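User: Last request for today: this protein with zinc ion, please.
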Amino acid sequence: MFCTNCGNEIDDKAIICPKCGVPIEGKNNCVIKSSNVLIGAALSLFCCWPLGIPAIVFACRANSKLKAGDIQGAQKMAKTAKTLTIVGIILGLIYIFINIIQAVTSEL
Ligand SMILES: [Zn+2]
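Assistant: Here's the final one, the structure of the complex with zinc ion:
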Protein backbone atom coordinates (compact mmCIF):
# COMPACT_ATOMS: atom_id res chain seq x y z
CA MET A 1 0.00 0.00 0.00
CA PHE A 2 1.20 3.51 -0.82
CA CYS A 3 0.43 6.84 0.80
CA THR A 4 -1.98 8.88 -1.32
CA ASN A 5 -0.32 12.08 -0.15
CA CYS A 6 3.43 11.50 -0.54
CA GLY A 7 3.60 8.12 -2.32
CA ASN A 8 5.69 6.56 0.44
CA GLU A 9 5.28 2.78 0.77
CA ILE A 10 3.53 1.95 4.04
CA ASP A 11 2.55 -1.09 6.04
CA ASP A 12 -0.99 -2.37 5.31
CA LYS A 13 -1.84 -2.21 9.00
CA ALA A 14 -0.72 1.42 9.33
CA ILE A 15 -3.47 3.97 9.83
CA ILE A 16 -1.30 7.05 9.42
CA CYS A 17 1.59 7.53 6.99
CA PRO A 18 4.79 7.54 9.10
CA LYS A 19 6.46 9.90 6.63
CA CYS A 20 3.90 12.69 6.26
CA GLY A 21 1.36 11.88 9.01
CA VAL A 22 -1.63 11.81 6.66
CA PRO A 23 -4.36 9.23 7.52
CA ILE A 24 -4.39 6.33 5.08
CA GLU A 25 -7.24 6.22 2.62
CA GLY A 26 -9.49 3.20 3.07
CA LYS A 27 -9.00 3.52 6.81
CA ASN A 28 -11.28 6.51 6.46
CA ASN A 29 -14.21 4.09 6.69
CA CYS A 30 -14.52 5.15 10.30
CA VAL A 31 -15.21 8.73 9.12
CA ILE A 32 -18.40 7.46 7.48
CA LYS A 33 -19.14 5.33 10.52
CA SER A 34 -18.82 8.25 12.91
CA SER A 35 -21.13 10.40 10.77
CA ASN A 36 -23.59 7.50 10.96
CA VAL A 37 -23.16 7.63 14.70
CA LEU A 38 -24.01 11.33 14.56
CA ILE A 39 -27.22 10.60 12.60
CA GLY A 40 -28.15 7.87 15.10
CA ALA A 41 -27.44 10.24 17.97
CA ALA A 42 -29.68 12.88 16.35
CA LEU A 43 -32.45 10.26 16.04
CA SER A 44 -32.10 9.26 19.67
CA LEU A 45 -32.53 12.95 20.54
CA PHE A 46 -36.15 12.64 19.39
CA CYS A 47 -36.66 9.42 21.36
CA CYS A 48 -34.94 10.32 24.58
CA TRP A 49 -33.19 13.69 24.71
CA PRO A 50 -31.40 13.24 28.07
CA LEU A 51 -29.35 10.52 26.37
CA GLY A 52 -29.49 12.01 22.86
CA ILE A 53 -27.59 15.15 23.85
CA PRO A 54 -24.52 13.38 25.31
CA ALA A 55 -24.69 10.97 22.36
CA ILE A 56 -24.33 13.91 19.95
CA VAL A 57 -21.54 15.41 22.07
CA PHE A 58 -19.61 12.13 21.94
CA ALA A 59 -20.28 11.73 18.20
CA CYS A 60 -18.93 15.25 17.56
CA ARG A 61 -15.90 14.55 19.73
CA ALA A 62 -15.31 11.38 17.72
CA ASN A 63 -15.34 13.43 14.50
CA SER A 64 -12.92 16.05 15.81
CA LYS A 65 -10.59 13.38 17.21
CA LEU A 66 -10.65 11.67 13.83
CA LYS A 67 -9.69 14.94 12.13
CA ALA A 68 -6.83 15.30 14.61
CA GLY A 69 -5.64 11.82 13.60
CA ASP A 70 -6.52 10.21 16.94
CA ILE A 71 -8.24 7.12 15.49
CA GLN A 72 -8.24 5.15 18.75
CA GLY A 73 -9.71 8.07 20.68
CA ALA A 74 -12.29 8.58 17.94
CA GLN A 75 -13.32 4.92 18.05
CA LYS A 76 -13.70 5.12 21.83
CA MET A 77 -15.90 8.22 21.54
CA ALA A 78 -17.93 6.68 18.71
CA LYS A 79 -18.49 3.56 20.83
CA THR A 80 -19.75 5.64 23.76
CA ALA A 81 -22.00 7.64 21.40
CA LYS A 82 -23.35 4.40 19.92
CA THR A 83 -24.13 2.92 23.34
CA LEU A 84 -25.93 6.12 24.40
CA THR A 85 -27.82 6.15 21.11
CA ILE A 86 -29.00 2.55 21.45
CA VAL A 87 -30.04 3.00 25.09
CA GLY A 88 -31.76 6.29 24.17
CA ILE A 89 -33.72 4.73 21.32
CA ILE A 90 -34.75 1.72 23.45
CA LEU A 91 -35.89 3.97 26.33
CA GLY A 92 -37.68 6.19 23.82
CA LEU A 93 -39.50 3.23 22.30
CA ILE A 94 -40.52 1.99 25.77
CA TYR A 95 -41.79 5.50 26.56
CA ILE A 96 -43.80 5.65 23.31
CA PHE A 97 -45.12 2.13 23.98
CA ILE A 98 -46.29 3.07 27.50
CA ASN A 99 -47.98 6.19 26.09
CA ILE A 100 -49.80 4.14 23.45
CA ILE A 101 -51.00 1.65 26.09
CA GLN A 102 -52.18 4.49 28.32
CA ALA A 103 -53.98 6.15 25.39
CA VAL A 104 -55.65 2.87 24.42
CA THR A 105 -56.67 1.90 27.98
CA SER A 106 -58.02 5.37 28.76
CA GLU A 107 -60.34 5.16 25.79
CA LEU A 108 -61.91 1.93 27.02
ZN1 LIG B 1 2.61 10.06 3.24
